[in-house]
Design brief:
Shape of chain B: globular
CATH architecture of chain B: Sandwich
Number of strands of chain A: 11
Order of helices and strands of chain A: EEEEEEEEEEE
Low-confidence stretches of chain A: none
Number of strands of chain B: 11
CATH topology of chain A: Immunoglobulin-like
Low-confidence stretches of chain B: none
Number of helices of chain A: 0
Radius of gyration of chain B: 13 Å
Oligomer: heterodimer
Mean pLDDT of chain B: 94
Largest sheet of chain A: 7 strands, mixed
Order of helices and strands of chain B: EEEEEEEEEEE
Strand content of chain A: over 45%
CATH class of chain A: Mainly Beta
Largest sheet of chain B: 6 strands, mixed
Distance between the termini of chain A: 37 Å
Mean pLDDT of chain A: 92
Helix content of chain B: under 10%
CATH architecture of chain A: Sandwich
């Protein structure tokens, strides 16, 4: 079946611009996560959605970052007034919550964001 | 602040050899330790995971060893193959969702 998809795969923007990154999770997965992966580093947690609500947004670096999931499926990560330091690969993952409580996260291929 | 420390940063192994990657953590609340494999241009994919109530878990050529008292865990890749060449990340979490990743180890398997 289809995995997690993310669009665009690459995004080049200028400093100060606004960008939106989209994530389509695996159908039926209620949990959705955003991570940011800088070059040569492991992914860093940004935000977690359970259904439509953000259950934990403690990883968002500042108020320029915002994410929504209005219908409990597709999610959009929004970055205002982009800075060069925002350049990274933004990964989305989704999972279903099993009875064991250990959710296997399925990652998308990521959106590579470059801020010039 | 990196909650999971991973080493080495990279390693080269001959085909058929053993690759060993080590991770250490401080947060004793962590209770689930997955390993992810990532190929260039792809997202990480879950490889194998362990809970602290067992000291070892094996799946095929991949084995996790876990030392709760030392707060360390490691991944062993037996009979390494060229297709295993990838970046490997250890991770840990005290909840279902907030994974803390190590910095990654790039493994190169020479034919």
């Amino acid at each position: 079946g289809a995995g997690v998809s993310q669009t665009p795969s690459n995004k080049v923007t200028e400093k100060g611009k606004y960008v939106e990154l989209r994530c389509d999770p695996i159908s039926g997965h209620t949990a959705l996560y955003w991570y940011r992966q800088s070059l040569g580093q492991g992914p860093e947690f940004l935000i977690y959605f359970q259904g439509t609500g953000a259950a934990d947004d403690s990883g968002l670096p500042n108020d320029r970052f915002f994410a929504v999931r209005p219908e409990g499926s597709v999610s959009t990560l929004k970055i205002q007034r982009t800075e060069r330091g925002d350049s990274a690969v933004y990964l989305c993952a989704s999972s279903e919550l099993g009875t064991s409580g250990r959710a296997r996260q399925y990652f998308g291929p990521g959106t590579r964001l470059l801020v010039l | 602040q990196q909650q999971v420390k991973q080493s080495p940063q990279s390693l080269i192994v001959q085909k058929g050899g053993i690759s060993i990657i080590n991770c250490a953590y401080e947060n004793t609340a962590f209770d689930y330790f997955p390993w992810y494999q990532q190929f260039p241009g792809k997202g990480p994919a879950l490889l194998i995971a362990i809970r602290p109530d067992v000291s070892e878990k094996k799946e095929g050529r991949f084995t996790i060893s876990f030392n709760k008292s030392a707060k360390q865990f490691s991944l062993h890749i037996m009979d390494s193959q060229p297709g295993d060449s990838a970046t490997y990340f250890c991770a840990a979490t005290s909840r279902d969702y907030k994974l803390s990743f190590g910095a990654g180890t790039t493994v190169t398997v020479r034919a």
